[in-house]
């Protein structure tokens, strides 16, 4: 990884080392068990590809992206590479703004170290919770830092976080084989979405960059939000809020830094497309599940309960700060949208959603699927 050191507002190298140092390895398994788990996840990922394509009617043709089974530090390293790529324009502007201040260069060098530690703490927290992820903005050619084989020349890759999958299947007391396949179905759906719909990645990146281009956030404010989130990980913020008689869950999240009407418009569009993608993955996972995952009903019931209850007040406070509560709503609202449209128009009719950015649902249409049907498929209304 190229060192940015003090030239950036976040020392990404320090973020990685901090997260790696703080992150626990996960459930105890023998070396032979670990090899068997990795091999099984790879088999399930391969099988899921055909299951998802058959159910959805989406076909990526010759386009393919890597499937990588990683540990928690591997997930951290992969995501830092993506963060740096996506946030580079925003970081460059904030760096210029800080440099124009008296003593700005020195502040940047010191601040990047502090923020690097805090971002590392957040990554450590998240690395123990993510089961899998289609890393949309992964570099096209480099291999995963720390291993993973050569690059393919195609952007994007699927990550399956083995220790987290094992942890949750044990926590829920569900059949390991079924649960691993069920998770792979969800994540493979995301992979299929982006490989079968060529314009989707560029559209998402364009929206994100447009959102960041509108950002006029004071560096100190952004750093303070990261500090609040990092303190939530260690319990410092929750303790401080309790001493002051305030509810940590009521605090503003990082997403609340949205300031301009233009940003709100872009965020609404991003929220809609993320709801679509997450809801579609849940719909496919449950649609394919009964045929290939015998205990799918038990898994869904237990996993949904786990999503809703979370892990206590501290966990809920951090989810609020990072905007993760919005993601939980995206699963629910998006799945309802997909299910309703498929019931009304069939899978072929629903797949009109992938025609172009103009056929993506709006935020209002996610809540009112009939409006999308009337707009995109007027004959079916």
From TrEMBL:
Keyword NAD: no
Gene Ontology molecular function: metallopeptidase activity
Gene3D superfamilies in alphabetical order: Zincin-like metallopeptidase, N-terminal domain
Superkingdom, natural source: Bacteria
The entry's keywords: Hydrolase, Metalloprotease, Protease
UniProt-listed InterPro entries: CHP03883_F420-assoc, Zinicin_2, Zinicin_2_N
Keyword Cytoplasm part of the UniProt annotation: no
Protein name, UniProt field: Zinc-dependent metalloprotease
């Amino acid at each position: 990884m190229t060192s940015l050191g003090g030239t950036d507002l976040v020392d990404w190298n320090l973020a990685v080392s901090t997260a790696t140092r703080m992150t626990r390895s996960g459930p105890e398994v023998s070396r032979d068990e670990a090899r068997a788990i990795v091999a099984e996840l790879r088999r399930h990922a391969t099988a899921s590809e055909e299951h998802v394509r058959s159910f959805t009617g989406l076909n990526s043709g010759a386009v393919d992206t890597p499937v990588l089974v990683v540990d928690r530090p591997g997930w951290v390293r992969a995501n830092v590479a993506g963060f740096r790529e996506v946030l580079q324009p925003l970081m460059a502007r904030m760096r210029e703004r800080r440099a124009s201040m008296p003593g700005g260069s020195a502040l940047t060098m010191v601040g990047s170290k502090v923020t690097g530690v805090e971002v590392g703490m957040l990554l450590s927290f998240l690395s123990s919770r993510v089961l899998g992820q289609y890393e949309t903005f992964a570099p096209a050619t480099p291999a995963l830092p720390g291993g993973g084989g050569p690059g393919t020349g195609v952007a994007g890759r699927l990550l399956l976080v083995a220790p987290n999958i094992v942890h949750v299947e044990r926590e829920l007391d569900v059949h390991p084989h079924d649960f691993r396949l069920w998770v792979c179905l969800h994540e493979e759906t995301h992979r299929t979405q982006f490989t079968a719909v060529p314009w989707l990645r560029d559209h998402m990146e364009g929206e994100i960059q447009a959102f960041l281009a509108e950002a006029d956030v004071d560096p100190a404010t952004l750093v303070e939000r990261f500090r609040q989130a990092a303190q939530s990980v260690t319990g410092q913020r929750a303790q401080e809020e309790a001493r002051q008689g305030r509810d940590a869950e009521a605090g503003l999240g990082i997403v609340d830094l949205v300031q301009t009407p233009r940003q709100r418009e872009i965020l609404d569009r991003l929220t809609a497309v993320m709801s679509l993608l997450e809801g579609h993955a849940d719909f496919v996972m449950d649609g394919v599940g009964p045929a290939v995952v015998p205990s799918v009903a038990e898994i869904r019931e237990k996993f949904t309960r786990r999503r809703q209850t979370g892990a206590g007040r501290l966990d809920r406070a951090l989810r609020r700060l990072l905007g993760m509560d919005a993601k939980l709503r995206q699963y629910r609202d998006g799945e309802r949208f997909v299910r309703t449209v498929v019931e009304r128009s069939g899978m072929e009719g629903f797949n009109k959603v992938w025609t172009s950015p103009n056929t993506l649902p709006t935020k209002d249409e996610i809540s009112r699927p009939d409006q999308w049907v009337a707009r995109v498929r007027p004959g079916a209304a």
